[in-house]
Specification:
Number of helices: 26
Radius of gyration: 34 Å
Oligomer: single chain
Order of helices and strands: HHHHHHHHHHHHHHHHHHEEHHHHHHHH
Distance between the termini: 141 Å
Organism: Archangium minus
InterPro entries: TPR-like_helical_dom_sf (IPR011990), TPR_rpt (IPR019734)
Keywords: Membrane, Transmembrane, Transmembrane helix
Protein name: Tetratricopeptide repeat protein
């Protein structure tokens, strides 16, 4: 009989029986591995949560966009990098924040941080708008607008889209003199990121550089709506209003507030505050104070082109021979800022330097003559062909130089545009015709811009039509148009002293023309209006 497996001397069980110690060891190993995995998962989850928390806080601070907020955002990002230095979008955001401190606030020490964090973001292959927008802005800072445009165009073909790319595109277009296209890009950026003041402020400042003060003020108000304490928005808005001859009291209060926050101000903000101070002094006729404030602005930031502009204007008001060179320095600093050329030319012409004014306008043509703008039927034309503001200004300068035929040709080119300056161009041409005593040719131009219903926008056109009708002996109708002119001028804020002087002049002319009854009636009506 065969022996059983368990009997002594019999065959052993082929399966090795597990001892209790061995089993416990294996259970322990599994427990350790499981604990390690759990610890790793928990750690990664904690890291992720910390990264997300720091990133959210940094973005919120960066969106507020004041220098103090930007520095706090960088501190949050530094704390994030202590947890995870490979957070690629955080590296890109750090590059963007440093870029703003470097280029917008003129803190040169932020350039190294911009380049360092951008290189890291690119190595980690961040796909955020901050990465691409920062690269484009660096190209612009290096004086390579064509390369920046090409870079952004390639990103567009790949489907890239963000407010930061639109902002970079706008700045690239601006650098190339394509002002209309730049305006549209700024608007796209502002609409896409309406909660952030950075974008409408950039848009508003570009409009300010074009001398489009009401539009600039509207854009800058959107910046203050996004952040009521945004220092650059508030200062630039004050400057836009002062350029319009408005907002003196508001500017004074703002400057008092800003002076109490000196520690928060970067070089760019210090310069802009001094520019507002200079513009305020200029509106009050204090040219020496304006010059002093402009110089202090330039000491804070030599890149502040509005300081150069106000300095040049102050010199022109003083009829200083250095005004021409000062305007030329300003346009060299910001070559596509139309404000510097057009307002500069008018200032030089009024100072008696007509040749300097023409030289400034010639420089303007050199910058913009090769720029193309859209035309009907999908075509393009040269920007100068559509620039009625330029031709109107050139006509005024030429007229002051007694070059009447050249001035007339310039006015005709302004009228051919059929743009926003059409009414002013019509008035200017009519005034030139009146100087030639060609009343029949001047009258239809003036009637169109100074209608009998009193709804015309130009008080000077009503005054000119009054002059024309008086010259023809039509005193009653002439008085009516003078009255419309006084009414409109008062609505536009012209001083009562000036308006009373004009009213008195009309009264004297009526008396000299043998119209005493009408002179008395005119005085009564004018006095009632100008109380």
């Amino acid at each position: 009989m065969a022996a059983t497996n368990g009997s002594p001397g019999g065959a052993r069980d082929w399966r090795r029986r597990e001892s209790l110690p061995s089993a416990l060891v294996q259970v322990g190993v599994v427990a350790v591995l499981l604990a390690g995995a759990v610890t790793y998962v928990v750690h990664r989850s904690s890291v992720r949560q910390q990264v997300q928390a720091h990133m959210k806080t940094a973005r919120t601070l960066a969106q507020r966009d004041n220098p103090a907020d930007l520095r706090k955002a960088l501190a949050e990002l530094e704390a994030l990098f202590q947890v995870d230095s490979d957070a690629r979008d955080a590296q890109a955001l750090a590059a963007d924040v440093n870029l703003r401190l470097w280029l917008e606030h003129r803190q040169s020490d932020a350039e190294a941080g911009t380049r360092e964090h951008l290189a890291r973001a690119e190595a980690l292959d961040s796909r955020s708008g901050e990465r691409y927008g920062t690269r484009a802005m660096i190209l612009l800072a290096e004086g390579k607008p064509a390369e920046a445009e090409k870079y952004l165009e390639e990103l567009k073909t790949q489907g890239a889209k963000s407010p930061k790319l639109a902002l970079a595109e706008a700045q690239a277009l601006l650098a190339r003199g394509r002002l209309l296209d730049a305006r549209q890009a700024f608007a796209r950026a502002s609409e896409a990121a309406w909660r952030e003041p950075r974008y409408p402020v950039a848009h508003g400042e570009a409009l300010l550089d074009e001398g489009l003060y009401p539009q600039a003020a509207e854009a800058l108000k959107k910046g203050t709506a996004a952040n009521p304490d945004h220092l650059r928005a508030r200062l630039s808005l004050a400057l836009a209003r002062l350029y319009q001859g408005l907002g003196r009291d508001e500017a004074t209060r703002l400057l008092s507030d800003v002076q109490g926050r000196e520690a928060e101000l970067t070089p760019a903000l210090k310069a802009r505050a001094r520019v507002v101070q200079a513009a305020l002094a200029l509106t009050e006729g204090k040219t020496d104070e304006a010059l002093k404030d402009a110089e202090e602005a330039l000491a804070a930031s030599p890149e502040e082109h509005h300081a150069l502009f106000i300095r040049a204007r102050a010199l022109a008001l003083k009829k200083d021979p250095g005004a021409r060179a000062a305007f030329q320095e300003a346009v060299t600093k910001r070559r596509t800022a139309t404000l510097l050329y057009l307002d500069g030319a008018r200032a030089l012409q009024q100072a008696g330097d007509g040749e300097g004014a023409l030289a400034l306008l010639d420089a303007y043509e050199t910058v913009f003559r090769d720029v193309q703008v859209p035309a009907p039927e999908g075509k393009t034309v040269g920007a100068m062909e559509r620039d009625d503001r330029y031709w109107l200004t050139r006509g005024q300068v030429l007229q002051a130089l007694a070059r009447a035929d050249d001035a007339m040709a310039a006015y005709d080119r302004a009228l051919a545009v059929k743009g926003v300056e059409r009414a002013r161009a019509q008035y200017a041409k009519a005034a030139l015709l009146m100087a030639r005593q060609d009343y029949d040719a001047a009258q239809p131009l003036l009637v169109e811009v100074a209608p009998e219903n009193g709804m015309g926008a130009l008080p000077e056109a009503y005054e000119a039509l009054g002059d024309l009708l008086f010259a023809k002996g039509e005193f009653s109708t002439g008085c009516q148009h003078y009255f419309f002119g006084l009414t409109r001028a008062r609505q536009l804020g012209e001083s009562l002293e000036t308006l009373k002087g004009k009213a008195s002049s009309v009264e004297k002319r009526l008396a000299a023309a043998g119209q005493p009854a009408m002179a008395k009636a005119w005085k009564n009506e004018a006095d009632a209006l100008l109380q």
